[in-house]
Design brief:
Elements (H helix, E strand, L loop, with lengths): L2 H17 L8 E6 L7 H16 L7 E4 L40 H9 L22 E6 L2 E2 L2 E4 L2 E4 H13 L6 E6 L16 E5 L8 E3 L11 E2 H12 L7 H11 L6 E4 L9 H4 L13 H10 L2 E2 H15 L4 H30 L2 H9 L8 H15 L13 H11 L2 H13 L9
Helix pairs in contact: 2-5, 3-4, 5-6, 5-8, 9-10, 10-11, 10-13, 10-14, 11-13, 12-13, 12-14
The chain binds 2-acetamido-2-deoxy-beta-D-glucopyranose (5 copies).
One 2-acetamido-2-deoxy-beta-D-glucopyranose binds next to helix 3.
GO cellular component, one term: vacuole
GO molecular function: cysteine-type endopeptidase activity
Enzyme class: hydrolase
Length: 441
């Protein structure tokens, strides 16, 4: 088809579908990138791409709340100033993204206020926009970032399962949605929804189970950029882009994600009847012109698998690359790497000592440290302990991602002890007397 023909047909089609009575413009969405920094390129890239997917499918920009640090497009390391890519040799996904909260405005308070529709709470921050959905409207939430057992990271801060549960309960009790779909991309993401009540009209889909890393993808790319995307995120977004989402169901999409996310187990929680809803209920139902050839689907899933990496591996590769860039000798590199591992061992020992001091017996401590799965129902205790551990022992989880991997041990400890007071005393005592862990790099 020639260009004129294309434009004619496209405008006819769009004019038609925007006028159509069944076009649904009453869905709301919240998109959250939890990290910052050049090496975490992929999370803001995923969120930018998701923003375009939703608006392209007809969700009104005024009904999307976007939370991202915004230090990637104009990062000093970016060889493509002002641009962000989510696919190898793909199109820029940054242009046109309307960001509501950026930089240091992003913390547990501002995110929780967005979810709870608390405009007073976010007054003066960013655009101040919060969810305004009612019992009649569907809500789609997507988070991409780092996490561990019962915790998501928000830059230097945290969003614990305890806090998220309370916000989701508030939304349910205050009739803030008809139905809700929550896609979560992070390590150990399953732990955020374990035990989710099936009657909440909420269906949650996580990139990994409670114990696994989630995986980044397109880590080796011709553009020489950091990992561009994440395995689960790339998979669901590709499904939206290449299918008619007016008939594709959430169940279809999730099954495709389960099948094609090979490095971790995609898990589902909550109200499974939502699987029968069409994707368009949550991601927009304007009929869109399909740019993507359906035939390349298998190729895409193969490409995703070509350069996957765990968060752990990304970090180690980064350390090694930094050392090599500084022209250290092989011996220097080995020494520095062993410093790095020693720092980790010191942190591990600190946490072991905390557990031991709390429970008072080596055998009990051993069981808490080694026990799996590291999940707890004592979420209030876990929330308090993680916050104290962060404040007293660690400079920043963002700079020292290894430190947050202790979250599961604290979950086990809370499951046994339940009352956080004794744990907080020990954390204060052990960490007040030593410098906080910064991370070696
Ligand atoms: C990206 O583009 C470069 C230069 O045009 C090309 O050599 C390379 O094969 C492309 N890579 C992919 C994955 O399409
Ligand atoms: C947010 O986190 C801070 C610091 O960790 C904490 O003091 C505060 O209570 C948290 N806010 C909410 C709403 O949970
Ligand atoms: C909304 O924010 C205000 C101001 O921070 C706070 O006092 C109030 O408790 C919040 N309401 C809810 C439901 O979280
Ligand atoms: C989905 O719809 C099918 C056919 O209408 C029905 O048999 C099935 O029970 C539904 N599934 C759920 C989980 O509600
Ligand atoms: C590292 O060594 C290479 C080759 O000897 C040199 O070109 C480069 O400038 C050096 N880099 C630094 C940071 O010293």
């Amino acid at each position: 088809m020639n260009v004129i023909g294309f434009i004619f047909l496209a405008s006819l089609l769009c004019g038609y579908c925007y006028a159509a009575p069944w076009v649904k413009d009453d869905s709301w969405a919240v998109l959250i990138a939890g990290s910052n920094g050049w090496d975490n390129y992929r999370h803001q890239s995923d969120v930018s791409h998701a923003y375009h997917l939703l608006t392209h499918h007809g969700i009104q920009p005024e009904r999307i709340i976007t939370i991202m640090y915004d230090d990637i497009a104009n990062n000093e390391n970016n060889p493509y100033p002002g641009k962000i890519f989510n696919r190898p040799n793909g199109t820029d996904v940054y242009a046109g993204v309307k960001i509501d909260y950026r930089g240091n405005e992003i913390d547990n308070e501002s995110v929780l206020n967005v979810l709870k529709g608390n405009a007073t709470g976010n007054k003066g921050k960013g655009t101040g926009r919060v969810l305004g959905s009612t019992r009649k409207e569907d809500v789609f939430i997507y988070y991409a970032g780092h996490g561990d057992v019962h915790v998501l990271l928000l830059l230097d801060g945290t969003l614990t399962k305890h806090e998220l549960d309370n916000a989701l309960t508030h939304m349910y009790e205050n009739n803030m949605y008809n139905k809700m779909v929550f896609y979560l991309e992070s390590c150990n993401s399953g732990s955020m929804f374990e035990g989710l009540d099936e009657t909440r009209r909420l269906y949650a889909v996580t990139a990994a189970n409670s114990m696994q890393s989630s995986f980044a993808t397109f880590c080796i790319n011709d553009q020489k950029l950091p990992c561009l995307s994440d395995e689960f995120s790339a998979t669901w977004m590709f499904n939206t882009e290449t299918h008619n989402i007016l008939s594709e169901t959430i169940g279809d999409q999730v099954d495709v994600a389960i099948e094609n996310t090979k490095q971790s187990h995609v898990c589902t929680f909550g109200d499974a009847s939502i699987r029968n809803d069409t994707v368009s209920e949550y991601q927009g139902n304007a009929v869109v012109w399909k740019y993507t050839d359906f035939g390349i689907t298998d190729q895409f899933h193969e490409d995703v698998q070509k350069s996957v990496k765990s968060t752990h591996q990304i970090l180690l590769d980064k350390v090694e690359q930094l050392l090599i860039d500084r022209n250290y000798s092989m011996k220097d590199v080995k020494d520095r790497m062993s410093d790095f591992y020693e720092d980790r061992q010191r942190l591990t020992r600190l946490v072991e000592n905390i557990v031991h001091a709390v429970v008072g017996s080596v055998t009990k401590a051993y069981h808490i440290i080694m026990k799996k799965p590291a999940l707890t129902t004592a979420l209030e205790c876990h929330d308090a302990v993680i916050k104290a551990y962060h404040k007293k022992c660690i400079v920043s989880f963002n700079l020292n991602p290894y430190a947050i991997t202790m979250s599961g041990i604290f979950a086990n400890l809370c499951e046994v002890v339940r009352d956080p007071a004794a744990i907080l005393d020990v954390i204060n005592e052990k960490c007040d007397t030593r410098p906080r862990f910064r991370g070696v790099i």
